[in-house]
Write a structure and sequence with these properties.
Blueprint: H1 2-35, H2 43-64, H3 73-77, H4 80-114, H5 128-153, H6 159-167
Length: about 170
């Protein structure tokens, strides 16, 4: 299961990278076509879709690597037992927040599909298509937080600490 989850986070991060490259290509195309006087309708909307997809798909990979910003001032000031308890409490709260985000992201996709919502821009894209990346990204992020919560409850140190030791 550990190997599957690590690969899931890695694939999610890889997809985020692909969308970042797609964002770069879209922005470059916008710049070049503007300079030569050609307008490609909806390209700016697609750049936005690519940026959102990259952001949401990168959440789990970034979290699993310990790269999310965490304020550890209070954790480091507490004794070891208190620090672990507070960390687990914070992870449980994060699970609740990420679970809600995943739930409502999926609900948004289903509602957009049911009501046939389309982009108001030049592209007229059905909105459920770009919203899928957000829903998938938030689901994988929720899984990553739940995974880390379970690991911490079992007494396993944060995955990011294991990565740091691996690279030393």
């Amino acid at each position: 299961m550990r190997r599957f989850l690590d690969r899931l986070y890695l694939v999610s991060g890889g997809l985020a990278a692909v969308f970042m490259v797609a964002l770069l290509v879209a922005i470059l195309m916008l710049i070049v076509t503007r300079q030569i006087g050609v307008h490609i309708g909806g390209l700016d909307a697609y750049a936005g879709y690519f940026m959102a997809a990259a952001g949401f798909l990168a959440l789990a990979h970034t979290f699993s690597r310990g790269e999310h910003i965490r304020v550890t001032l209070l954790l480091s000031a507490l004794p070891a037992k208190g620090s672990v308890r507070l960390d687990i409490f914070a992870l449980i709260v994060a699970c609740a927040i990420a679970g809600n985000l995943a739930w409502f992201s999926c609900k948004l996709v289903l509602d957009s599909y049911a009501y046939n919502d389309i982009s108001t821009g030049d592209d007229a894209t059905p909105l459920w298509i770009p919203q899928i990346a957000m829903a998938i990204g938030t689901i994988i992020f929720f899984i990553a937080i739940l995974d880390e919560t379970i690991r911490r409850c079992k007494g396993i140190p944060p995955a990011s600490e294991n990565d740091e030791q691996r690279y030393e």
